[in-house]
Design goal:
Layout (H helix, E strand, L loop, with lengths): L24 H16 L6 E3 L9 E5 L1 H9 L6 H4 L3 E12 L3 E6 L9 E8 L1 E7 L5 E7 H14 L15 E2 H11 L7
Antiparallel strand pairs: 1-2, 2-3, 3-6, 4-5, 5-8, 6-7
């Protein structure tokens, strides 16, 4: 099993290269490793990019939080067939369109203190992304709200950018336990300083 690189590793700051053969065995292995690591760290994982495991290729996986939410709204439990589709595979992704409205969500990253540090990040609330899936199919997806943040967060990894770049004030970075305690006591996330 691959390990997840941590903040300070120079490989995390490099731009990833395009994938030439999305259906290759190499890409399938990378995708398998990314999903396996996400499932292993499921509690803290919304996605993972190839550079985070030391592979400088434009590949990431993102948890389909939008599908999970859809199931919950309908009062359904996430079933096995949905679980198979919970991880969207993005190869050579690029943003085709950004919405004008922004939203702020608290983000963490498995490459920053093993996913134990969080901070508020403002991004476009909706993005359209063109990409190739692991079977070589060209796709266009519209991601909104938190799922849009996950997709943009992972896209940033392909550019060598970590979410902490967007945190101007270090006081806005919270350890997971402290943030959970604050939310329990106040019913919401802290306001950004």
């Amino acid at each position: 099993m691959k390990t997840i690189l941590q903040l300070g590793d120079p490989l995390l700051e490099k731009k990833a290269k395009p994938v030439r053969e999305p259906k290759s065995k190499e890409v399938q292995t990378i995708v398998h490793d990314l999903i396996a690591l996400c499932k292993e760290k499921e509690e803290n994982s919304g996605g993972l990019a190839a550079p985070q495991i030391g592979i400088g290729l434009q590949i990431f996986v993102a948890r389909r939080l939008d599908l999970e939410e859809e199931y919950r709204k309908k009062g359904r439990k996430i079933r096995e067939e949905l679980d198979d589709n919970l991880w969207e595979v993005f190869v050579n992704p690029r943003i085709a369109k950004r919405g004008k409205r922004t939203s702020t969500f608290w983000e963490g990253c498995l490459s920053v203190d093993d996913g134990q540090l969080f901070g508020p990040v403002t991004r476009p609330a909706t993005v359209q992304v063109k990409y190739t899936d692991k079977d070589g199919n060209k796709k266009l997806i519209t991601a909104s709200e938190y799922f849009a943040h996950v997709v943009q967060h992972e896209l940033d990894h392909l550019k060598g950018i970590l979410f902490v770049k967007y945190i101007d004030n270090p006081e806005n970075l919270w350890r997971n336990n402290d943030l959970d305690k604050y939310i329990r006591e106040h019913g919401d996330f802290p306001e950004a300083i």
